[in-house]
TrEMBL record:
Keywords: ATP-binding, Ligase, Magnesium, Manganese, Metal-binding, Nucleotide-binding, Protein biosynthesis, Ribonucleoprotein, Ribosomal protein. Residues 271-454 form the ATP-grasp domain. InterPro entries: Asp_endopeptidase, ATP-grasp, ATP-grasp_RimK-type, ATP_grasp_subdomain_1, Peptidase_aspartic_dom_sf, Rimk_N, Rp_bS6_RimK/Lys_biosynth_LsyX. The lineage of its organism: Bacteria, Pseudomonadati, Pseudomonadota, Alphaproteobacteria, Rhodobacterales. This is 30S ribosomal protein S6--L-glutamate ligase. SUPFAM superfamilies: Acid proteases, Glutathione synthetase ATP-binding domain-like. The keyword Nucleotide-binding applies. One of its GO terms (molecular function) is ligase activity. Gene3D superfamilies: 3.40.50.20, Acid Proteases, ATP-grasp fold, A domain, ATP-grasp fold, B domain. GO terms for cellular component: ribosome. It comes from the Bacteria. It holds the Pfam family RimK.
């Protein structure tokens, strides 16, 4: 694009022109050129500042076409100033000022523009004199000296695909702000220009009503988030999923839904969901009465057996019973503690190894093989297991994708065993760790998650406003 040059021939402008603001995703705006106004102004509403004090940003919504409130463009930009601006009718207001590139004809240059609600104006933008270069000549008696554009561009697929990435405000629900997974989510999001905030789930509380349900944190109402990434620990599943449900209630996009997290954490419920979807898994049995111990063991296929607490995690509460007598003893012990548990077939051919498939938005994006430490049957990395890269089969890939889909999870770690009769799903983890899978596969899993979030996240619906016909310019 040509840039302003005082030595070139005058760049002719009329009192109204067509411009585009490509960095904001606005391909066509009809503007009023007003040399009597010092500051340029752009129509904006639902204006919200976010980000750190050292690097503030602002996001806003614009109806680019007068009288077409069904056409909405959501924009974000860095803030360069906040200043008091006096309008032509003598009213003053404090406005955010952003810097963006303006394109007119073959020329493109940066301008500062203030944000204000011009919903009752015929022109969505006012071009003030500070936005004009020295070689620009405004002829008040003429209109559209530069090439005309059209509002139909807002419906163009090509324009939509080329729209700039909008800065998102994202919350990571986590009680461990400094662990690897949370740090990676923050670092990756900020590297893409998003604002990522870590929220301790247990410090959230909720106002539940039909008019304005909200989430509060340490005495302050939380702002609108474009997306929430839940990393709910097993010890707070009930309260954590209640917080996620509250975000769902107010219309926030949650990477994993509350019901999917709840179902995946309850081993019995999870296996019933897998069975309903005809997804391969080890033979599993459950009973409440001690009179059923013998039949329970028989249903799972006789010893050796795995006895597993319903809410076990990271291999805790999982016992290998190598004989029938040992299985009966473990079951009696768990019943004595009034614990709920499953009895499950032990897949010998897996030889202490399992496959962790990381599934994002319906695709297996990475996989690793986890091998148990010597003398250990559990392959969890938290139990001293080792990880290594692995190539999975189409059957294993399909099983992982189907399992994640069964729980409605957009991010999950699906654990599989390789058996003589095909892959067996052991568990679907709704808060998978990223460290092992990223280091084993060499893939930027956090980045792949943000790719999915950027496609899915939508701004919270704007407040309904009565249509107002243009009255002034």
């Amino acid at each position: 694009m040509d840039t302003p040059n005082a030595a070139s021939e005058p760049f002719q402008l009329g009192w109204e022109e067509w411009v585009s603001l490509p960095q904001l995703g606005l391909p066509a705006l009809k503007v009023k050129v007003d040399t009597g106004a010092r500051t340029s102004a752009l129509h904006a509403y639902d204006i919200e500042s976010f980000g750190s004090a050292s690097s503030p940003k602002v996001r806003f919504t614009i109806h680019p076409i007068p009288d077409r409130e069904d056409v909405l463009i959501h924009c974000s930009a860095p803030v360069v100033d906040r200043r008091e601006v006096t309008s032509s009718n003598g009213e003053s207001e404090w406005r955010y000022v952003i810097r963006t590139k303006i394109r007119m004809g073959k020329r493109e240059w940066p301008i500062d523009v203030s944000l204000t609600d011009r919903g009752n104006m015929a022109y969505r933008m006012l071009l003030g004199r500070t936005a004009l270069a020295e070689d620009m000549l405004v002829t008040p008696q003429q209109s559209f000296c530069q090439p005309e554009l059209g509002y139909e561009s807002y419906h163009s697929v090509a324009v939509k695909q080329d729209a700039p990435r909008r800065s998102l405000r994202i919350a990571v629900l986590s009680r461990e702000a400094h662990n690897y997974s949370t740090r990676r989510l923050v670092e990756e999001g900020e590297s893409r220009g998003h604002v990522v905030e870590v929220i301790d789930t247990t410090r959230c509380y909720m106002a539940i009503n039909q008019l304005s349900p909200e989430v509060y944190y340490d005495g302050t109402r939380l702002p609108r988030y474009d997306a929430v990434i839940p990393r709910i620990g097993a010890s707070i599943t009930s309260y954590g999923t209640a917080v996620v449900r509250q975000f769902e209630t107010i219309g926030t996009y949650c990477v994993n839904p509350s019901d999917g997290i709840t179902a995946s954490r309850d081993k019995l419920h999870a296996h019933q969901i897998l069975a309903r979807q005809r997804i391969g898994m080890p033979a599993t049995a459950f009973a409440a009465s001690p009179k059923d111990t013998g039949n329970l063991i028989g249903l799972a296929g006789n010893a050796p057996l795995i006895v597993k607490l319903l809410e076990s995690t990271q291999g805790k509460g999982v016992v290998l019973a190598e004989t029938r007598k040992a299985a009966e003893s473990v079951i009696d012990a768990f019943r004595g503690l009034k614990a709920s548990f499953l009895v499950q077939q032990f897949v010998k051919e897996a030889a202490g190894e399992d496959i962790r498939c990381l599934v994002i938005a319906g695709k297996v994006v990475a996989a690793m093989k986890r091998s148990a430490a010597e003398g250990e049957f559990r392959s969890n990395l938290h139990r001293g297991g080792n990880s290594s890269p692995v190539r999975i089969t189409k059957q294993e890939r399909d099983a992982a994708v189907r399992a994640a889909k069964a729980f409605g999870l957009n991010l999950s770690g699906v654990d599989l065993l390789r058996s003589s009769t095909g892959p067996k799903v052991l568990e679907v983890n709704s808060s998978p760790g990223l460290e092992g899978i990223e280091k084993s596969s060499g893939k930027n899993v956090a980045g792949l998650l943000y790719d999915a979030i950027e496609k899915k996240a939508r701004p919270v619906p704007a407040r309904r406003r009565a249509a107002v016909k243009p009255k002034a310019t």
